[in-house]
Amino acid sequence: MNIQDIMEFLRNVSPFQDLDDATLKDIAGGVSMEFYPKGSTILHQDGPASEYLRIVKKGAVKVFIRSGKDDEVAIDSRVEGDAFGFLSLVSGDKSRANIVAVEDTTCYLIGREAILKLLETYPVFSEYFLVSFLNKYIDKTYKEIHKRNLLYGGGDRLLFTTPVGELITKNVVTASQDISIREAAEIMSQHGISSLVLLDGCGVPAGIITDKDLRDKVVSKGRNTSDGIGSIMSVSLIKADAKEYCFEALLRMIRYNIHHLLVIDNGKLRGVITNHDLMMLQGTSPISIAREIEAQQSIEGLVPASGKINKVVDLLMKEGAKASNITRIITEINDRLLQKILEITEKKLGTPPLNYCWISFGSEGRKEQTFKTDQDNAIIYEDPGTPEKEGEAKRYFSAFTLLVRDSLLKCGFPLCPADYMASNPQWRQPLKVWKKYFHRWIASPTPDALLKSLIFFDFRPLYGDVRLSEELRLYLAASMKGQNIFLAQMASVITKNRPPLGFFRTFLVEKSGEHKNEIDLKLSGIGPLVDIARFFALETGIPETSTLERIEALKNRHSVMKELSEDLEQAFEFITLLRIQHQMEQANKSLPTDNFINPDTLSNLEKKYLKESFHIITKVQDIITEQYKPGMVAG
Fold first, then answer.
1. ∠587-588-594 over CA atoms, to 5°?
2. Mean pLDDT over all residues of the chain?
3. SS3 sequence, 61-130?
4. Is residue 272 a contact partner of residue 261, using CB atoms and an 8 Å limit?
5. CB burial class (10 A; 0-12, 13-18, 19+) of residue 76?
6. Do residues 321 and 577 make contact, with C-beta atoms less than 8 angstroms apart?
7. What is the DSSP string of 216-228?
8. Which of 208, 259, 467, 635 is the most buried if burial means most Cβ atoms within 10 Å?
9. Up-side HSE of residue 216: CA atoms within 13 Å toward CB?
10. Higher pLDDT, 148 or 198
């Protein structure tokens, strides 16, 4: 090795760059070099201490620990110019972590004696490693992780902090979409890969083939392997951006029931991320529950899987996830559960006589579920062409919705006390009837009509012919144009539900009864926020149903939201998180969950944030009242 080349390299590596040339030359003279193929383990957790400080010259390694046989928790990655092995080298007892080459890697090795001499001689060298390196990378992380409950592998926090680009399989193997099935299988076998990206004549990804496709579409069907690969490839390519967090990739995999995502960076294909990559990142995960649900073929098989969903809430709470991340993951899993129930019920009763769309509303419609909430659902089906078809549809959907209702009940979803469920004949109707409902509620905004509007206008399609839902959503948007009287009546209703905050910013608690000295976070905190976002969405024709998605979409379309959207988002996140935390504590004590908290149990900081959240809600309510007060609305 050329000593000058090593010296030049070390001059760009902290803290060697602070050494004088004579010392640097002395160190370079004792440096050796080693090559580690991709996948090779360089240091073993609890294994022998490192004899060298290794500096990555080319390539990359990952640093992780195991708390059990399969529980892997990633700590860090090291790339060119980064060092590893310092802690065990100094302590001389054992390695604290596993270090594995994630690509072909070459390292410079500096012996233990040379490093110890530098630590004694150069304070700047000692300070860098003993303070920066030690605290930042290994010991602190190691101790914190072992304090945690590692039942789930402890890696879910990484979902929200790790960009997809850091996990991808680089150097993606691609092939032309014009090759045969046999040729595609040979390429996959040769490279040991589970997916193959297929390109069109311009080199643009046109589809993807996976080992599952080969099993399900070729082997099990006895298909001729000389057929073109294009005949079985998936052309609906689901993509992720390299800068997105793994959480977003997780959602897409659950939503589309896929195991591979193409990763795009600045418009170019950069790699592939797989279900296995995410499982390795976080151990047992929400994906595993979604997969368990997907594998079931009976309602009885779904019941144990549904019982695990609440554990995901606990897991994500412990890992410091935002409230909106928790609700989105739980909603995705609950969606998978409901879709599976509907599939099983259809198989039992046979093909429905008319196309239909199963819709949900309430917190499920807004994608804001945490613990299992009441069933709030309905059915929109095609307009029957004949009386006979109408009678057939009524008979089928009557039996269908009763079975679904009872199945959801078995899986832990209570019945709706007000009977807003598809099992109620009023809420399983053809599209034309739903349009009449909406028209009547808007044209004649009685208290009952307004109540139903607040409930049903949050509808979201979950299964079936989504076009029916989309047509109803378009009809609602068109029907709302110029409906100032309806909006004024709705404004009057929603602004009466004020957050429990007194004139001097004191909490207004219940004075007596079961919840004395408590406040209702759902009714008086989250409820007004949901109402505000819904109101502005109806006013401006925004189709989104999620509260946060509505706020985001309104930022550039509504003057109030342009100014206060960020404050409202933070208020929603904070109040929702308080509610989830409270219910999680109750669930862990096997107590019934509710929405009431005693403000005196909160920290001073929590009290401050809650008061600020209530204040911003009140401020927006006052703006709505001012805009739609008597005399300001044309008849």
1. 25
2. 84
3. EEEEEECCCCCEEEEEEECCCCEECHHHHHHCCCCCCEEEECCCEEEEEEEHHHHHHHHHHCHHHHHHHH
4. yes
5. middle
6. no
7. IIIITTT--TTSB
8. 208
9. 8
10. 198
As a whole number of angstroms, the distance between CA 164 and CA 269 comes to 13
pTM over 0.70: no
Q: 3-10 and 21-29 are packed helices; what angle lies between their axes, rounded to 10 degrees?
A: 120
Q: pLDDT tens for residues 350-362?
A: 999 999 999 999 8
* Matching residue, tokens 């909106």: 324
What secondary structure letter does DSSP report for 592?
P
Query: Is residue 539 packed enough to be buried (19+ CB in 10 Å), middle (13-18) or exposed (0-12)?
Result: buried
What digits encode the pLDDT tens for the residues 161-213?
677 777 776 667 888 988 999 999 899 888 878 788 888 888 778 888 888 78
Between CA 327 and CA 533, with CA 546 as vertex, the angle to 5 degrees is: 125
Rounded Cα gap, residues 45 and 63, in angstroms: 10
Collect all residues with Cβ–Cβ distance below 8 Å to 187 and sequence separation of at least 6: 173, 175, 179, 196
Name every residue whose Cβ is closer than 8 Å to that of residue 293 and which is 6 or more positions away in sequence. Answer: 302, 305, 306, 333, 336, 337, 340
For the chain, domains (ranges, CATH) are: 3-147 (2.60.120.10), 164-282 (3.10.580.10), 299-472 (3.30.460.10), 488-627 (1.20.120)
Segments of 145-247 assigned E as strands: 174-176, 195-199, 205-210, 239-241
Strand 195-199 with 174-176, pairing: parallel
- The single-letter code of the amino acid at 203 is G
Angle at 442 between CA 436 and CA 444, to 5 degrees: 95
SS3 string, 283-332, reads CCCHHHHHHHHHHCCCHHHHHHHHCCHHHHHHHHHHCCCCHHHHHHHHHH
SS3 content of the chain, % helix, strand, coil (to 5): 50, 15, 30
